[in-house]
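Quick note —
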Amino acid sequence: MLTASFSELVKSSPILPVLHMESVDDAVNVSRALFKGGITCAEIVLRSPVALDCIRAVSEQVPEMTVGVGTLTNPQQVKDSVAAGAQFLVSPSLTKTLANSMLETGLPMLPGVVSPSELTQALELGVKEVKFFPAAQYGGVNTIKALSSVFSQVKFCPTGGVSLANMADYFAVNSIFAVGGSWMVPKDIVASKDWDQITQLSAQAIAQIKLLDKCA
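Predicted structure written out below.
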């Protein structure tokens, strides 16, 4: 059974930065910069050889930041990520095997869905909070509105193509409780180690969310 709510986890800053980190030091500095800008959670994706090391380092060195893992595709990754200190779990997909391994941890979790069939599978497992990914390629706001008309009990966190420019469109949909994205951590800014710029971009995003009255 799901014992923790993802929407509760992100209610004070309902934006989930998606971090593809190639350096442990960068992961720590980026996390500090995000938190300084008002973002309290960050998802480090399993797309680099040092991803688990990054999760462990942020968990230990930036305890004020709630760090989780993304791009989970199999149960072993779930185990390894929890062992590294991941405090929430995100997957781009949904299978019964993967979802059950995530549920067993008791941590907040978001499986990825894009279709009515996947949403039905999620509900059969007791999951009512999902990641809608890749959002832009699957119709974005309009698709979520259509799905919500049938699956009114489901809450969405769209990721993929979400930006400061269109964030308000997503938050205008009642079934959307948060958004995910990487626009506040551009690769060139990370490469130049301009942590203050990341803080500014984070603060800008949080300021807009507050204007939309979406922060608890």
